[in-house]
Amino acid sequence: MMWTITKWEIKSTFKSRKFLFIFIFQIVTLFLIIFIFSGVLQMMNTTEEITLTPSLGEFVSLDVNDPSGIIRDELNPKAVMIHPTSIRSPRENSLLLVDEYNGLPLNASLFLDYSTPMRNVVKEEVESAVERSSRKIANQIITSMKKEQVNVKEEAVGESLPLKLVNKVMVAILLILPLFMFGNLIIDSITGEKERKTGESLIAMPIPRSHIILGKSLAVIIIMGVQLLIWMIIIWVGFRIPNALIIYLVLLLTAFPVVGFTSLVAVYSKNYKEAGIGITLAYIIIIGFLIVPALAYISQKSGLGPLILIIKLLSLENITIFDMVSTVSILIFSSVIFYGLAVWLFEKDDIIFGPRPGVLRLLRGFL
To answer: Comparing C-alpha atoms, which of 255, 250, 254, 247 is closest to residue 314?
Structure first.
């Protein structure tokens, strides 16, 4: 009987225009996210300095008197418009004076007009240029030294933190996003039955109430599985996904407690509005439990959870039996708890027909 409920839900979902709109919207959103993340990855791979502020070169001007060009050449023309000038005839409100470079120390003076808010842009750009020129001078001094240097070979193991952040955490979060995009299906399937007053006729059928909840949840999980497969194929265009089959199975297994928790909230809710608020809060809690351990793993290389397991699979790290068993056990245990509570609530007539008891009263009855 549970499979009958599942087939009914799948057929009605794929015939729904709302589902078709949501599906197309998700695909478009995914392409935009891939485009943005690819740009971030490209910026992190480049050795050039990245300017995150918009170009103000047409509005911010700076007079520069630098005979050696040691600092002038390091100024970014996209940030400020540079005007070479003499000390006696400055044209702009901001002036940079640099002594001729004959060795260290190198003196430079910056004069700003504090009546204009653009002074901060000039100040930040000059400070960045001074830092870049200082590095260049230091490299020149080191290169010119004739002392014999110890032959030291530096090996970097793994990736730098920015690349690790993009290649592992961001891709893992991209892969797990579809699990949180089908809450409306569960609301419409469970809470909608109570709102439309069709739940009574469904309960009157010779079907156990547990089969109704489990059948509706299974239908959503199957639809999630199809969406996850399409989602991963599209992500494959912009990012490399090693161990794709294992990652897909982990994501599919993660969908069970997510749908179970959502079903629990939907069963207890009176209407669409209450269910929407409840599921939003529930998803914030779930995402916190998924992402916070993952961020701790990046900094400390330890932790448990499905997102951490996906990160390890993406980075081709060694996966131990403990990692697999612990993650699967957490997902199975949480699924049993959430579905058990959802079925327990759905079997109570006061939850379906009213008046609905409060949370504290339910806890006393459960304990």
So the answer is: 247
For residue 259, report the phi and psi dihedrals to the nearest 5 degrees.
-65, -35
Q: Which of 195-199, 280-284, 333-337 has the lowest mean pLDDT?
A: 195-199
Q: Which contiguous run of DSSP H or E holds residue 160?
A: none
Query: What is the residue whose two structure tokens read 């961020």?
Result: 295
Which residue from 244, 247, 217, 224 is spatially nearest to 178, judged by alpha carbons?
Answer: 224
Task: Identify whether the C-beta of residue 215 lies closer than 8 Å to the C-beta of residue 5.
Answer: yes
- How confident is the model at residue 111, as a pLDDT? 81
Sequence ranges of the domains in the chain: 2-43+159-366, 61-139
Task: Give me the DSSP letters along 62-86.
Answer: EEEE-TT-TTGGGS-TTTSEEEE--
CA dihedral 73, 74, 78, 80 (to 10 degrees): -80
Residue type, 302: S
CA atoms 27, 29, 34, 39: torsion sign: positive
Q: How far is CA 127 from CA 73, 132, 357, in A?
A: 13, 9, 64
Residue in the block written with tokens 């971030």: 40
State the Cα–Cα distance between residues 179 and 46, nearest whole angstrom. 33
Residue that the structure tokens 């007009």 belong to: 113
Alpha-carbon Rg of the chain, whole angstroms? Answer: 30
- In the chain, DSSP finds a helix count (H) and a strand count (E) of 15, 4
DSSP 254-315: HHHHHHHHHHHHHHH-SSHHHHHHHHHHHHHHHHHHHHHHHHHHHHHS---SHHHHHHHHHT
State how far the Cα of 262 lies from the Cα of 92, in Å rounded to an integer: 62
- Strand (E) or helix (H) holding 4: helix 2-14
Quote the Cα angle for 216-221-225, to 5°: 150
Q: Is the peptide bond between 67 and the residue preceding it cis, with omega within 30 degrees of 0? A: no
Residue 364, token pair as written in the block: 């006393």
- What is the rounded average pLDDT of the residues 141-161? 57
pLDDT band at 163 (very low <50, low <70, confident <90, very high): low
Instruction: Give the type of residue at 60.
Output: V
Rounded Cα distance between 118 and 53, Å, is 13
